[in-house]
Design a protein that fits this description.
By secondary structure, the chain is α/β, with parallel strands linked by helices. Among the domains are: about 30 residues, no CATH class; about 200 residues, Rossmann fold, CATH 3.40.50.1100. The strands form three sheets. The chain has a six-stranded mixed β-sheet with strand order 4-5-13-10-11-12, with helices on both faces. The chain has a four-stranded parallel β-sheet with strand order 8-7-6-9. α6 links the parallel β7 and β8. The chain binds ligand F0G. The site of ligand F0G has 22 residues, from α5 and α10.
Length: about 425
Amino acid sequence: MAQFKCIHCGQIAPASDNYVCTCGGLYEVNHDFGDISLELFDEKLRDIGSVWGSGVWRYKELIHPELDSRHIVSRPEGNTNLYKRQRVSEYAGLDDIYMKHEGENPSGSFKDRGMTVGISVAVQSGAKKVACASTGNTSASMAAYAAQAGLEGLVFVPEGMIAYGKLAQALAYGSKVIQVKGNFDDAMGLIRNGAKQLGFYILNSINPWRIEGQKSIVFEMLQQRRWESPDWIVVPAGNLGNTSAFGKALRELKQLGLIEKIPRIAAIQAEGANPFYKLWHSNEKKLEPMKPDTIASAIKIGNPVSWEKALKSIRETDGVVEQVSDNEILDAKAIIDASGVGCEPASAASLAGTRKLRDMGIIASDDQVVCILTGNLLKDPSTTVNYHIEGVSARYSNKPVVVESDLDKIEAVLSQGNIPALGQAVKHIGN
Ligand code: F0G
């Protein structure tokens, strides 16, 4: 039977809706796994049309074995593609780099993987009202799943700091949207201190079941690779739920004897929202919160709730934490976009970080690297359009051209070519 275990003091508690231990540490789910073989999951791939068709619930035995399947609320989610594009590999200075596109989930981000589990647990426990704080994607996902399950949704978002695509989703799916005058960390504080009092079940990643669902990104990626581990998994890092989930997924697979090699996790933060980077590169024992500032609004977080779990993930996987500037994020995004794959700004921190780690000699040119693209290109159209139209230091800008309705003039414009800098982007790293 699964129980909760405090990440900080080790205390065991029943797997109820109580997320935080009396010592203040977060709980994680402590499973009592039976015998599990990889064939089980390969077999389920054939079960098209059933709940195992979900890229989350296919791995139910590793996520929530005891959940009554009748309570599962699924779109279905997952089954996201692994892309390989030459221009992206060359930009990173690698032979091969794969992008796992979590923006292909039903609401356009990886959040659906944790949300399907969190909402299903909420339904099983009889909750009627669910709430979260969000930089946008969690709220979009929760609003969608709450609507599907017939639950009342409440979301707290930082006023003026969330991308329009995400705000549009939360409003359209019918959750109550509170725009908090403050940043994400303020909104998160309100949820932690007030949601229970208001009678809401919390669906942020302090809820350990969210983390369980997000483990499926790693399970699915490994299954797509015939269960062969890459050398690296590179992930954008904000509130640190994914970094935590990936480490736990790999730990459990290893303990079950299902994988031999543990990939190294590289968590990438934006320079202006880098408290975890600072912690990793210091001798401090506790994360020091900061005031965040980055164009990648999804990871504009100064006090990430899951830092202690994430630290364990980085330590256990011999991982690293790196930071990248907003310009590096936007240029990497332009490269991913121009490869035809596309992503939202925060997602591109993974490619920018890979390139930097390659430059530093930490990632080798023949290492197998999987970058996680966390959100869809359409989530934040303003940032993309601004980059191409106004971006002062935008290296790969694709400026729209205003031309009179005259074919000769259009021909003259066409003769100038398109995004010339893209040709120079490749082979940046000379070895
Ligand atoms: N990328 C995207 C697109 C995100 O939406 C988030 C987090 C992250 C990366 C960071 O992931 O928190 O697991 O380290 N978005 C949250 C939200 C905070 O509210 O939507 P993390």
